[in-house]
Every structure is written in C-alpha cells, then in structure tokens.
Design a protein that fits this description.
CATH topology of the largest domain: Beta-lactamase
Number of strands: 21
Number of domains: 2
C-alpha cells in the first residue's frame, strides 16, 4: 500500500473510539460497584476507562454531565483535567529538547531573562519541582478573587516571581504549578507561539488527540461536562469561576477518557519521545541533598501491587482527574469527575481498578468491633523517622489517627492486629512483644510493601 494511504488509515484509526474487548468480569464488577458507591445517579458524574494493552476492559459513566438540564454523563464527554496537563507540557518541552531548541540543563534566564535568580534555575529543575519557585496557587486568599482575572503568561509570572523562594534550586522538592507556568513561557519563547498552539503541533496533533485542547473559557467545546462543587450542607453547587488563562501550561487542558487512554499508550510505548528522552521524563532523581522523591518530569511514580507505575492527578474547581499506567502488564486507567468534591478518592479508584485488571486485587476488608481494652492498647504516639509522628487516640468508642499537624481520621479494624482506612489503601499491622503489649506499627503506604516501621514512643495521653 502507498505510504500516504497507510498514514490515512492510521489517522482514521486514531480518531475512532477504542474498540472494547470482551469485558473482564472482575474489572466490570468492580468498576460498576465503584461508580455506584462514589457517584449519585442524579448528581455530578464519573467516567471510568480501564484497558489492558490496547483492549478496553471497561468504559462507562454514571451521573450527570449537566445537573440543571438533566443531561446524562457519557464516556465520550470532555472534562477539565487540571494538573494532568503537566504530562503534556513536559512532553512538549522534551520534544523541543529532541529538536535541539532547548537543553535540559539550560538556565531559565536564557528564555526569561529578567526572572530573579533565573541563571541558577534549570529546565530540568522546573520539570521536576526542584526549582524552589513559590507556587502561586498556594498564595493565601488567591482563589478568593485574583484567580478570576485574565492574565497573559508574562503577567501571571509577575504574580509570583518576586515571592520568597521555598529553597535554593535543586536542594529540595516541592510541588509548584509556577514552575510549569515558566515552562509554558519557555515553549512560547522558543516557538514564537502560544504554549497551547505549540503543544498541539508538538504532541497532540501527531496523535490525533482531537478532544485534548486548551480551555480558554470562551470557546465552545463539544460535550464538555459542567463542573460542580459541594456546599457546607453537602449539596451540589456550580463550581466557582476561575480564569483558565491562569491555569495555563500547569493545568489548562480539557480531555476525554479515550484521549487520555491513547495518550498513555502512546507515551509509554515509544510513540511520543525517543527512548533516551522518554527515559529522562520517567526517571526519578534525588535532590542535591539526597532526599528521594517520587516525581519525574510531569509525571509521578508509585507501585501498584509491587509493579512500578506512573500516575498523575488533576484538580480544578468543578473537576478531578486521575491517570494511571502500569507498564509491565500495560494497564491503563482513567478516572474523570465533574465535581471537585467526589465521595471517593479518584486515585484510590484507579489503583483498585489497575490491581484488579492485573489479576491481583487489593483485599476487601470488613470491619470488626474492638473491645475498649483492645482500642486503649493501641493508643499512643509512634515515630515515623524524619517524617514526624503518627498518633492513635480513642474517643467516642472509635479509634482515630493523625499525623503531626494533620486532622484525625477513623481507623477501622479488620482484626485486632490489622487496621485500615475507609478512604485510602494505607493499612497498618500491629507489632507486639512477648507479653502482648503493642510496641510498634508497620505502615503500608498505598497498600504497598515494604512497610514503614513506626516504633511506639509513648502513650497518647503523655503528649
């Protein structure tokens, strides 16, 4: 066949919805149960897509795309994806690296000459959140009014450029959307085009990701779901307005479940970046101080049932998103909601679905009632090394735990020696001495081994 004809067929295939394979019964049962548990059929909705390789195992939706107009949500609908935008921004920067228009160790001052200390901040540090640049999203009160203003990239940089830095570049890690606004500025300086126009040419158009685009707040976007929040009484309300000019290259895209699935498959199977550039994007590098992180370039890392995986979450007023990819069994999961206050954590939903698609589901625990003596035996302060302390207390006939400076969360008991949360996958096993006294907890973050060992330091009442 003529090469042009092949290209046409490939383009046509890329634009068609993913073909559903025979549904995996275990995945379908869990996905439907999670939709039912997390989403009110008459309220804001949720879309879930699960795939193994290129075969879609589940693709479904529950709830409303528009509550006021009583429009049902469908798997084809489009959502604001918040910080999942960062994957695309990082890939666009790395495409420019491949074109030798940007170097990973270039100083920011090459592109934004007047940025304070820009000569000592590198492109790599912006990608990895190790630049120390203050996150404008965290400015006290910023979401009360300032976030509603339309700003150019340069004007948005003016908002945070003179703020005190969090640390010297490269010495620590702290998530910063400001760094990705600066990466958007680099894309604009190098290409001479708005960041989103250049991004479409560099990474979106070649993959026919036609439902992934910049949400400028004025253009009509077909099938875009309305966004909702929840008031103090638990009732759905329209999400507060923000100017998407301020989300920019840190969070300004909309997308669909199908596009995000195609994106993950393309990114992680060598169809976006060259092997060495992909390795750079997905490699986690400790900070100069030696502190480990779990963030690479525009993408986070974790383990699902022991397997390395990549993920990112996104949140805008009215929306939340989660993308999760487990390379070894090639599991893709997308979870999209049109509320910023879902009843269930979208990251937990994605991890549970991925584990089930791998054939290694997380255990379904069932709470038992502990005696008062069993609960009191657990109460205490447990050391988490450099991460501070975890405290367990008992009141109102229930066990609670909290981290230093955090709020209390209910702990359930699967047995006297296994404790877990309702909301997340973390759980604890209780370690006792020969006399049966509680001497430590082993904490399994995200339900994964190896555990953190938390020696008991003192009774909670001794604080």
């Amino acid at each position: 066949m003529h090469a042009f004809g092949v290209l046409l067929l490939l383009a046509f295939a890329a634009q068609c919805p993913p073909a559903a394979a025979e549904s995996d019964p275990a995945v379908s049962r869990l996905a439907n149960a999670l939709l039912a548990d997390s989403t009110d059929a008459a309220g804001a909705g949720t879309v879930i897509l699960v795939a193994r390789g290129d075969d879609v195992l589940f693709r479904g939706a529950r709830g409303k795309a528009d509550i006021e107009l009583d429009v049902a949500l469908t798997p084809d609908d489009v959502f604001r994806i918040g910080s999942n935008t960062k994957q695309f921004t990082a890939a666009a920067i790395l495409k420019l690296v491949e074109q030798h228009r940007v170097a990973i160790d270039d100083p920011l001052s090459r592109f934004v000459p007047d940025y304070p200390n820009g000569a000592h901040i590198t492109v790599d540090e912006l990608l990895r959140h190790t630049s120390g640049v203050k996150d404008y999203v965290a400015i006290d009160g910023y979401f009360d009014a300032a976030i509603r203003q339309d700003l150019s990239t340069d004007k948005l940089i003016d908002v945070f450029k003179d703020l005190p830095v969090d640390f010297a570049p490269g010495t620590d890690w702290k998530y910063s959307s400001s760094g990705y606004i600066l990466l958007g500025a680099i894309i604009e300086r190098v290409t001479g085009k708005p960041w989103h126009v250049a991004m479409r040419e560099l990474v979106l158009a070649p993959l026919a990701l036609d439902h992934t685009r910049y949400d400028d707040g004025t253009t009509l976007i077909a099938r875009r779901a309305a966004g909702y929040s929840v008031d103090s009484n638990g009732h759905a309300v329209n999400a507060p307005y923000i100017s998407m000019t301020q989300a920019g290259a840190a969070g300004g895209l909309v997308s669909s479940a199908d596009d995000l699935f195609r994106w993950m498959r393309a990114l992680h199977t060598g169809r976006v970046l060259q092997p060495e550039t992909y390795a750079l994007m997905t490699k986690v590098v400790p900070t100069a101080s030696g502190r480990p992180t779990d963030y690479a370039c525009g993408i986070g890392t974790l383990r699902v049932r022991g397997e390395p995986a990549f993920e990112h979450a996104g949140r805008d007023p009215g929306y939340m998103s989660e993308t999760l990819y487990v390379p070894k069994p090639a599991i893709s999961v997308v979870v999209l909601t049109n509320t910023d206050s879902p009843r269930a954590d979208v990251s937990v939903i994605a991890a549970r679905l991925a584990a089930t698609a791998m054939g290694r589901p997380y255990p379904q625990r069932h709470a038992i009632a502990l005696t008062d003596a069993q609960m009191r035996a657990l109460a205490g302060v447990y050391r988490r090394d450099s991460a501070g302390h975890r405290t367990i207390v008992v009141h109102d006939g229930q066990v609670y735990t909290k981290r230093d400076g955090g709020s209390e969360h209910v702990l359930r008991a699967a047995s006297p020696d296994e404790l877990y949360f309702d909301e997340v996958l973390d759980y604890f096993t209780v370690q006792r001495d020969a006399s049966g006294n509680v001497v430590a907890l082993d904490e399994f973050p995200n339900g994964e081994a190896p555990p953190l060992h938390l020696p008991r330091q003192r009774d909670a009442s001794a604080r």
